[in-house]
Task: inverse folding
């Protein structure tokens, strides 16, 4: 079984940022399901259209589609996987533990109001996907990506209505997974209001990679 590390937390808690940093450090493959789905949603197929409209509403995409995307995404030669945005409900968590050896689940704990403020300021490069935040991590030049010069946009699923739905889905479906993984002895809760560097340091120390 392939080793897996999971990042969980409310939208805006910094899962993606930490997952990316850890992937560089470990050489593990980083799988961000939201990014895979957004890519799928650009395709002019029935599946693409279904995924696009589900994401825009802020609802969860059906599990069957998620499992197929994961199977496709995992590369044969990877030494481990870092999941970010998966699992999001109990049946996905069951799928995860049946198919991967879950080493750790990092739960980034953030108050709802702070999370919503963070999402409101979030911008993403339309070309390379790099994330920015208007106040916490602004680009050097307004609306322009520091790395590739692409235009920065607000993700369509970061609209106030979709954000409300996603936060609701988090509390209704994802939050219970904290217990699920705690019972399995793999859960670590990290206060997500700390700086990116501090949180990463805690993770590396937990994995004995410091
Ligand atoms: P994210 O970028 O992780 O916030 O994901 C964006 C959107 O993709 C979510 O609001 C859902 O519509 C969908 N999505 C992401 N991950 C999952 C998942 N594990 N299961 C179902 N839907 C998902």
Result:
């Amino acid at each position: 079984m392939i080793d897996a590390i999971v990042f969980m937390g409310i939208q805006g808690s910094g899962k993606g940022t930490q997952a990316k940093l850890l992937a560089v450090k470990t050489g593990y493959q980083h799988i961000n399901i939201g990014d895979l789905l957004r890519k799928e949603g650009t395709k002019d197929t029935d599946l693409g259209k279904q995924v696009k409209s589900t994401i825009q509403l802020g609802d969860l995409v059906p599990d069957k589609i998620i499992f197929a995307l994961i199977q496709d995404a995992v590369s044969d030669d990877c030494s481990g996987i870092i999941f970010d945005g998966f699992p999001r409900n109990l049946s996905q968590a069951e799928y995860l533990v049946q198919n991967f050896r879950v080493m750790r689940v990092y739960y980034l704990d953030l108050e709802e109001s702070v999370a919503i403020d963070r999402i409101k300021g979030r911008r993403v490069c339309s070309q390379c996907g790099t994330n920015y935040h208007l106040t916490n991590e602004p680009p050097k030049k307004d609306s322009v990506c520091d790395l590739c010069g692409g235009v920065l946009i607000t993700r369509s699923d970061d609209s106030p209505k979709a954000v409300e739905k996603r936060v609701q889905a988090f509390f209704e479906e994802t939050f219970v997974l904290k217990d699920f993984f705690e019972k399995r002895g793999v859960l670590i809760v990290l206060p997500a209001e700390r700086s990116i560097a501090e949180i990463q340091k805690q993770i590396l120390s937990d994995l004995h990679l410091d």
